[in-house]
Amino acid sequence: MPLIKAIPPVRGRVGRPRKRPDCLYADRGYDHDKYRRLVWRTGIKPVIARRGTPHGSGLGIHRWVVERTIALLHWFRRLRIRWEIRDDIHEAFMTLAAAIICCRHLVR
């Protein structure tokens, strides 16, 4: 719940900014009614995979985007293992890596 409360306002259309996303995708590790109720109370629809059901719920499509992004960042050897102690230096390398990845995809 601290992560959900720390979500910044969602940018979008002109007008009052939305304070929360429409839905929350989660892994089977969060399959508990307690988490579902807490997320519903904040006004967010929980989409959490159920334990004991076969794969194919459709959540893999959204999860694939996150795993692909992490894999793209691992192209940069310095980001595989965090060597920097200072947060600002690590964030600068992450930003630089993201800019290089975007540039490579735009050139194609």
Automatic annotation (TrEMBL):
A single MF term (Gene Ontology): DNA binding
A Pfam family annotated for this UniProt entry: DDE_Tnp_1
GO annotation (BP), single: DNA transposition
Location of the Transposase IS4-like domain: 18-101
Domain of life: Bacteria
PANTHER family referenced in this protein's UniProt entry, alphabetically: BLR1914 PROTEIN, PHP DOMAIN PROTEIN
UniProt name for this protein: DDE family transposase
Phylogenetic lineage: Bacteria, Bacillati, Actinomycetota, Actinomycetes, Streptosporangiales
